[in-house]
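Working notes for the structural subgroup meeting. M.R. asked for a predicted model of this chain before we commit to crystallization trials. I am recording the input and output together here so anyone reviewing the notebook later can reproduce the run.

Input as submitted:
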Amino acid sequence: MKITFEHRFDASVDEVVAMLSNEEFNAQRARATGAQDFDVLVDHQDDGSFTLALRRTLPSTTIPPEFRAMVGSQITVRYTEAWAAAEFNGDPTDREGTFAIEIAGAPGHARGAVVLKPLADGGTAFGLAGDVQASVPLVGAVVERAIANAIQEALPAELAAADEWLAAR
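Returned structure, recorded in token form:
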């Protein structure tokens, strides 16, 4: 199942990259999604690329009731973003990366691409596009929809936290 999401930041690409690679921001991002517990690790490379690993423990109320019995009262979500260096695609103003979402004990995952592009007014366009896959006989499509819906519901909270972070700086 395909997922896409777009957002506009009122900040430059460099400011957005600085935010996304900041452990303190990513802690705020985790709290914005209702995480009961979380761990954040950002690995910076000399070329400007970085990888974010964010593990969150969330109440299972974030997933449809019919799947809660499979996972218990909480779920652990592992989220990874890997951002390439600024000139990875030949355009020094764009930033591209990948994301992966895995739910411990659940039969599905999501993977795809993230991109930041400068806008003429100084803002930044954020885009996410990916696929949700679940390899479960008979109910795979239902699991995929549940994961896709959870992602589509969590992203606005994360991006609102990002907008607040940027506005405060």
